[in-house]
Amino acid sequence: MKNRLKDLRTERAWTQADLAQRVGVSRQTINAIETGKFDPSLPFAFRLAKLFNLKIEELFLDDQ
Amino acid sequence: MKNRLKDLRTERAWTQADLAQRVGVSRQTINAIETGKFDPSLPFAFRLAKLFNLKIEELFLDDQ
DNA sequence: GGCCGATGTCAAGTGTGCTTGACATCGGCG
DNA sequence: CGCCGATGTCAAGCACACTTGACATCGGCC
């Protein structure tokens, strides 16, 4: 499950801490997801997609 | 996080066990998600959306 | 070189997604 | 009524999503 988080975040010149605050999780969680440590929960994925005005399928790529 | 699982499943005349097998989880997991006990993981939500040919946003409704 | 903000990562703890196994209930059908 | 498949639900256990706190590293800037 790859994602475009890091690109979208840096495009906007946000730090991991900035993004974490906007979606209500810890900075370590953002870092773990960007670096592929684990996948976000579904409600968290919805909040991220909403923030970037994208469909979940546009943010997260199913590589099985 | 509401979902349209039960409707889509019964439209196709599938049992919970049928659906569980198609997406690779236990029957109890399907039941728990249909009855709102908890939300599926993101990879599992992708499998369900793919099975029904829907966007994740069309299957799961964010009610926060 | 020395400072500092941003990032990566570890450890330990909590909550939840999901499992197997079991049992109760409901509805349709003989 | 009695049977049976489908559904709902409980308990116990495991894996993972996420937390706080801490520390190492990297890059830019003085």
Automatic annotation (TrEMBL), chains A, B:
InterPro entries: Cro/C1-type_HTH, Lambda_DNA-bd_dom_sf. SUPFAM superfamilies: lambda repressor-like DNA-binding domains. One of its GO terms (molecular function) is DNA binding. Residues 5-59 form the HTH cro/C1-type domain. It comes from the Bacteria. Coiled coil: none annotated. Keywords: DNA-binding. PANTHER family: DNA-BIDING PHAGE PROTEIN (PTHR46558:SF4), TRACRIPTIONAL REGULATORY PROTEIN-RELATED-RELATED (PTHR46558). This is Putative transcriptional regulator.
